[in-house]
Amino acid sequence: MLYYQCMILSLIPKKLTSTLLALVVGTVTFINSQAAEMLPQSVTFIGQKKFEQISKKAIAGNWRALAMGDRMAKIALELEGLPYKAYTLEIHNNIESPSVNLKGLDCWTFFETVMGISKMLEAPKKSYTPSDLLRQIEHTRYRGGICKGNYLDRIHYLAEWYKDNDKRKTIDDITRKFPTVTMSNQCNEMSLLWKHYRYLKHNPELRDLMAKSEQQMTAMKVKMIPKSKVAGIEKHLKNGDIIGIARHSDGSYCSHVGIIIKDDKGRARFMHASTTYKKVVVDTTISEYLNKFKKHAGILVARPR
């Protein structure tokens, strides 16, 4: 029912869309446990064949019995080689909805999809559906774990994702367990580069709201492990740890993200959707990866629960 309501809202003048959408979704949330699916799965879920392959393999191998990090490593390796694709979250001009694309991943959707499938498997089932994964994506992607159909429901900056998901005990932000420094970055990337974002381009009224949100991000006290200290803490990293790559320049706190895969020698390799290789790869150790790029300042570390 909610999908058709949203289609009607898309015909209303843009100025009224956000307000009316919030009212409609607020009403429906109380009676529909799947209210987050505000667009059809033909739009929000791409790559069902790949999803079914991974799900069946995970069920047959009883991956649910693995520790969360080891389960994430198994799933991540199933995505190795998938092409890099940017802006896969920009799926509609007005309506925000949880989405998955298993035919192309960027750095954020890679780690998020791996974590989502891993969490999905914790509920024992004979088979899993796209809706099962979309519910997990909603839980981590949106502020407070709730999508109401508005673009600004989504967490757009990784540092806030760490804070929000740590507060809700989806992850443990373990960055401060290691030697850290406070970052002084200014967050303004999305409001400055709004033409690259479909929702901001088609909804000018969202740009000032995004800028205000970015001001709040800038005021956060974000800690990072400096690049020079990372080699010394690699032995403490585990399979599935989510690694935010901190940047020197302004725009945001982090410019990239991936996960740790421990190889057969026990080394903490960085697995990510790479713009360099144009696909998902298991790269060098995380310290070696950082040292390839002057722009990388250090890392943030989250351990999924």
Describe this structure in words.
The protein is an alpha+beta fold and 305 residues long. It has a domain at 1-156: Putative xylanase like domain (Putative xylanase fold), CATH 1.10.3670.10. Helices cover 41% and strands 17% of the residues. Strands 3, 4, 5, 6, 7, 8, 9 and 10 form an eight-stranded antiparallel β-sheet that branches. α1 runs antiparallel to α2. It is globular and about 45 Å long. The two termini are 34 Å apart.
Structure in a nutshell:
With 305 residues, this protein is of the alpha+beta class. It has 13 helices and ten strands.
N-to-C SSE string, H for helix and E for strand? HHHEHHEHHHEEHHHEHEEEEHE
Distance between the termini: 34 Å
Gross geometry: globular
**What's the Cα radius of gyration?**
19 Å
- Secondary-structure class: alpha+beta
What is the assigned CATH homologous superfamily of the domain at 1-156? Putative xylanase like domain
Number of beta strands: 10
CATH topology of the domain at 1-156: Putative xylanase fold
Largest sheet: 8 strands, antiparallel
Q: Helices, strands, pairings?
A:
Blueprint lengths: L1 H8 L4 H16 L11 H4 E2 L1 H13 L7 H11 L21 E2 L5 H14 L9 H12 L16 H10 L3 E3 L7 E2 L6 H4 L5 H5 L2 H14 L4 E4 H7 L8 E6 L6 E9 L5 E7 L4 E7 H6 L4 E9 L1
Parallel strand pairs: 1-2
Antiparallel strand pairs: 3-10, 4-5, 5-10, 6-7, 6-10, 7-8, 8-9
Helix pairs in contact: 1-2, 5-6, 6-7
